[in-house]
Amino acid sequence: MELFDLMSISSDRFVSVLVDCIGIDDLLTYRIPEDINIQIGDILSVPLGNRHVGAIALQISDTSAIANLDTEIKSVSAVVSSGIFPKTYWEMLIRTADYYRTPVMQTVKTALPPKLLDQSHYRIKIKQPLPPQPLLPLGEGEQDSFSPLPLGEGLGVRTISKAAQMVWDFLQEHKHNPKGISRRYIQQKLGRYTSSGLKELQKLEWIDTVLELPNRPQPKYEDVVIILKAPDSEVTSRQAEILTILQHQGGECLKTQLCKTAKTSVSVIQTLANKGYVTIAKQESLRLGGKSHTVTRDRPKALTPDQEAALQQILKAIADQTAPHFLLHGVTGSGKTEVYLQAIAPVLAAGKSALVLVPEIGLTPQLTDRFRARFGDAKVNVYHSQLSEGERFDTWRLMLTGEAQIVIGTRSAVFAPLSNLGLIVMDEEHDNSFKQDQPQPCYHARTIAEWRSQLENIPLVLGSATPSAEVIYAHQEGKSIYLELPHRIGNKDMPPIEVVDMRDEFKAGNYSILSRKLQGAIAEMLEAKQQGILFIHRRGYSTFVSCRACGYVAECPNCDVSLSYHDPISPTAHQPKSAHLRCHYCNYTLIQPKACPECGSPYFKHFGSGTQKVEQELAKLFPNIRLIRFDSDTTRNKDQHRLLIDQFRAGEADLLVGTQMLTKGLDIPQVTLVGVVSADGLLNFSDYRAGERAAQTLLQVAGRAGRGEEDGKVIMQTYTPEHPAMQAVQTYQLEAFMQTELEMREALRYPPMGQMVLIHLSSESDTAVEKAANELAEYLRQLENDWDILGATPATIAKVANRYRWQILLKFAPEVLPNVPSLEELRMLVNSKAVRVAIDVDPLTIL
Fold this sequence. Notes:
α1 (87-99) packs across α2 (104-111), α9 packs parallel to α10 and α20 (690-702) runs parallel beside α21. The protein has a seven-stranded parallel sheet with strand order 14-15-13-16-17-12-18, with helices on both faces. It has a six-stranded parallel sheet with strand order 19-29-28-20-27-26, with helices on both faces. It is an alpha/beta fold.
């Protein structure tokens, strides 16, 4: 039988599954109950030991693979979700698991919506009523007598072990919880006493063990009112009016919506149902995020010759059903999105789907609105981590229907189960957000998109104004087709970039974080009633806080980093109203002390500048300025990105002050000024990619200026104007700069010519992790593969969330990757429960 045969299978068969359980990699066999229909690729719930776990159906057969027919074969408990894994999709997951050296099941869980593969767990309750127990002596091997259990209804006295008494006392404290207490929670509180204590109490029949199945997402159903017959003389005028409204709604309407539209009550609608004029039926209501905002329909725009040339090449590949990779290199404002829209239109017309990947959730609303305006709400859906579990679950199931649609999402959307894909678009492909750092697998969405394009034989369009080194190198190697949009729409010039040397400002006596040139430009902008964007590398108020008297620096007790100062300018639910210090890694928060903990001095100095500090400085210099701060502190809530951008677009603020989010995809025509407060935070970073990232980020943020009728202006402040990245940005010479970067990396065997793997080790014990890291590094050296081993060394940030961190960096030619130990092999080599191991193939950050 074909492994991926999706035909319905008769129920008197056996299914071989891959279970979600660490350490079990072989296929397990289960019986298919008569009342359950299973297909290859279904997500199942199966019994394993004393719990239920998630599993994937991979093979179905008439006879069990177990030789001994007397062996009892357990039955599948339930089908959780059907039709998820067509052949090419499964091949993509297998390749992902192999390349990123991660177990298949762990990779599958990354691709699925939350909780589809959650395990069941046990809850413990005191049995009601308790059975009578005789007074018994301690058995052989039992501990010395411990205090007897308290007398209960029908309960005699029995001397028990210390472990059982501790568990009993703990359960007594929670006896009013009707669901009982999870075994995991008891284990956390009582540790080594849990297992033996529970066994003893279970033997005495004083406790019940209840299996609690995972709380997986469920479809949502709502009441729909359906008209059965037109109003006549038997109904009142008010009832006739409601029926007429229902007719205008197409004959059916959600009950809640009808109550609102007709300004009526549920009881009136029920009366109509009792009279036989309407029926009320349950109908599934799909929870689809990203559509609360209304948009105005638009039409395709006239294309420039460059846009038309690029579009025709993409359309030819779609028509020929080939899988080229296109690099759409267009300067900011050159109309890349319009090319995407017009390329997708014939894909939808052919009954196929399109996948559009964006780097940040903040970009999703703006891009989604453009697509909804062109193709309508029914064809466009979003998929990202800020959707609710129900929204992700419903969007996922909608993708499985096979209907032609556009899915817009962040990196996890690369696994969207669209079985009839016709095109993949990856906007801002250079962005680091497309790379997953944790949990495993540490995949790059661009790599998965390239594989998916090949497996499904469809084109992939990689769009960017500042292409990554990897994509530039792939083009030079003949692995992609280059499409260029060198001019802005309307042939508008790119805004001139002026670089301000902040050393000269300091010498001239200007100690403000804003140069005189930038202050003057903001004043001119305000006078002309225009708008501007101010980019800061960090959120918060300052990088760190230090005592002027003794030099004490406030540090996070859980991490090896300084605490950032946050000022209570605009308090939120996530930000206390008083001045406080916060760790940006573990979110540890401390109200700022009034005096130095070391010497008692009240004098603190705030070093560095974050968004809050710039906001405060602007308020001092320009008392009437209207500001919106746009960073991860102000955009935590759902749809907050859209709300803030809409406010700015509507002219409710003069200046948008923010971090990296501002560099990505914002198209606001009235912005004439862009200021970069300090480029040095990007330039002075201990990473071989620092120059590339700085140039990309600065050119991206510069591209937000001058997109409308008015000319734009960009002012960048730095203490190192001589840096090659700064000079490349000022003259818009990114191509020449990137060529120099590639030559440097080739000499050092850095990516994209070479390849790297970063192995992370962490533990609450600094000695345990150091010992494990050194032993693992020595083992890897003995393997004598053609790789360079750097480390073991402490990570750049040596402690995060009370865990000490070490790492080993492997550098090698790409063909050596299959020789790198997998995650499971690394765990076996370390062989310590106290030390966690992780592996990052093609790491983008080495912290």
